[in-house]
Amino acid sequence: xxxxxxxxxxxxxxxxxxxxxxxxxxxxxxxxxxxxxxxxxxxxxxxxxxxxxxxxxxxxxxxxxxxxxxxxxxxxxxxxxxxxxxxxxxxxxxxxxxxxxxxxxxxxxxxxxxxxxxxxxxxxxxxxxxxxxxxxxxxxxxxxxxxxxxxxxxxxxxxxxxxxxxxxxxxxxxxxxxxxxxxxxxxxxxxxxxxxxxxxxxxxxxxxxxxxxxxxxxxxxxxxxxxxxxxxxxxxxxxxxxxxxxxxxxxxxxxxxxxxxxxxxxxxxxxxxxxxxxxxxxxxxx
Length: 286
What we know:
Elements: H1 9-21, H2 35-51, H3 53-57, H4 61-70, H5 86-99, H6 103-111, H7 118-121, E1 136-140, H8 145-150, H9 157-167, E2 177-180, H10 194-211, E3 215-219, H11 220-228, H12 234-237, E4 241-244, E5 249-254, H13 257-262, H14 267-285
Parallel strand pairs: 1-2, 1-3, 3-5
Antiparallel strand pairs: 4-5
Organism: Rhizobium aquaticum
Keywords: 4Fe-4S, DNA damage, DNA repair, Hydrolase, Iron, Iron-sulfur, Metal-binding, Nucleotidyltransferase, Transferase
Domain Uracil-DNA glycosylase-like: 127-275
């Protein structure tokens, strides 16, 4: 077995990435625990108990009844939360979203919403409470582990790369409005189910209506399909413009920062899309 102390920096980074991809988000113990030793100790305790079993069976009924009465009653098992049917949950989300008159109220509605099971497993609702100074709304798919922990969209390495991407064309991403189509991180970072996505849709559409952006940037496969209904992959949709929301807002599909991390050769495609986006903004402002 290789000790951690024997790994170099690159191997340690690879190991951390492996655990992150597997859904491990936190180390709950400061020191390692030898589970094999724990099991051996537990087995050693069980052996004397088994040898004492015949003597216990030889007890008179009255003695067994007294022993049973002395044992504490088991704790009641908490009832499992009843799932709200999909159509009813979508309607609940629609009513909650439409009642919000600004982004702060919309975030509050999301924080208190109980119609989506993702809210129960997430630490925070990751959603903007106010719009940025620039009329650009950037949507990712779902919060990362860091986003979930901080309650802030794009607070991980994805956000750092996103800032560099937009900074290359002179846009301060901190002045845009950053959000996710689904405001709660699914367990282990799995993709949202179609039902979960539909429950979250009213909140995303209401965000567009309240933020009133001039442009929406849809990052990655899930986000672009979420808003356009297309089944094509992002490499087929990137650079294309759509109209989404009511009233219609111009939206462009782009590669997600994760796409660039996974395939660095895609950076040239992202750069071409950013230049086209810059040109589109200049034409709109002319």
